[in-house]
Amino acid sequence: MTLSRRNFFKLTGLGAAAAATPGAFAQNAMPGSADAGRQAYPVQPIARLDALVVNQPLDFAYPDAGSACQLLRLGHAVPGGIGPQQDIVAYSILCPHMGCPTSYESSSRRYKCGCHFSVFDPEMGGQQVIGQATQDLPRVLLELDDDGSIRAVGMVGLVYGRQSNVMVQEVSA
Questions:
Q1: Under 8 Å CB-to-CB from 9, ≥6 apart: which residues?
Q2: How far apart are CA 62 and CA 81, in angstroms?
Q3: Looking at CB atoms within 10 Å, which of 44, 50, 74, 126 has the fewest?
Q4: Nearest residue to 16 (alpha-carbon basis) of 4, 28, 24
Q5: Any alpha helices (H) in 28-151, and if so which ranges?
Q6: For the segment 55-76, what is each residue's pLDDT rounded down to a tens digit?
Q7: Residue 120 and residue 137: Cα distance in Å, rounded?
Q8: What is the pLDDT of residue 26?
Q9: The whole model's pTM is what?
């Protein structure tokens, strides 16, 4: 069977449309969603409020050891921020374009991907500013305890390369 150029583009266009449809292949459980009971996010201590320095990222892994993230205290209120000044946020640092690690540049206050030059703004919810990526950086949901402990409790957005942020682990009998 020969596939004409026209039919090739029709088929690949249909595949691309299906892939771009939200929820077409996999859903990511969010706290409070119907799937949250099946795939609960771990609650993980990250740092103490009094140990954070403005504009200096703190590395951690969430929701598992294979997911590099950073916690930032930005020094002024930002969307989604927690803490007394609403200035503490955290993001997966894997670029949503192809999974390269991004790095925080304190002078520009942006995350930059060295592979394909995407730039993300942590002061605007991890929003993509420029580059090849088509999604914002996934944001780590945070909670602040009364004693000043900061905990990761969930994610908004899908970590690169995954069908679900919470990996299902098989238990052997």
A1: none
A2: 18
A3: 50
A4: 24
A5: none
A6: 999 999 999 998 999 999 999 9
A7: 7
A8: 38
A9: 0.74
φ, ψ (nearest 5 deg) of residue 67:
-120, 95
3-state secondary structure 65-85: CCCEEEEEECCCCCCCCECCC
Query: What is the identity of the amino acid at 171?
Result: V
Determine the Cα–Cα distance for residues 161 and 39; give it in Å rounded to an integer.
17
pLDDT band at 8 (very low <50, low <70, confident <90, very high): low
Which among 1, 20, 22 is positioned nearest to 12, based on CA atoms? Answer: 20
Could you tell me which CATH number the domain at 45-156 has? 2.102.10.10
Structure tokens at 55: 């504009």
Residues labelled as active-site residues: 97, 116
What does the domain layout of the chain look like in residue ranges?
Answer: 45-156
Q: Work out whether strand 68-73 and strand 102-105 pair parallel, antiparallel, or are unpaired.
A: unpaired
Backbone torsion region of residue 75, taken as left when φ is above 0, otherwise alpha when ψ lies between -120 and 50, otherwise beta: left
For the purposes of burial, counting CB atoms within 10 Å of the CB of 82, is it exposed (0-12), middle (13-18) or buried (19 or more)? middle
* Highest-pLDDT range among 3-17, 26-40, 127-141, 151-165: 127-141
CA 121 to chain centroid: 13
Look at the block and give the residue holding tokens 């990526």: 133
Average pLDDT over residues 109-113: 97
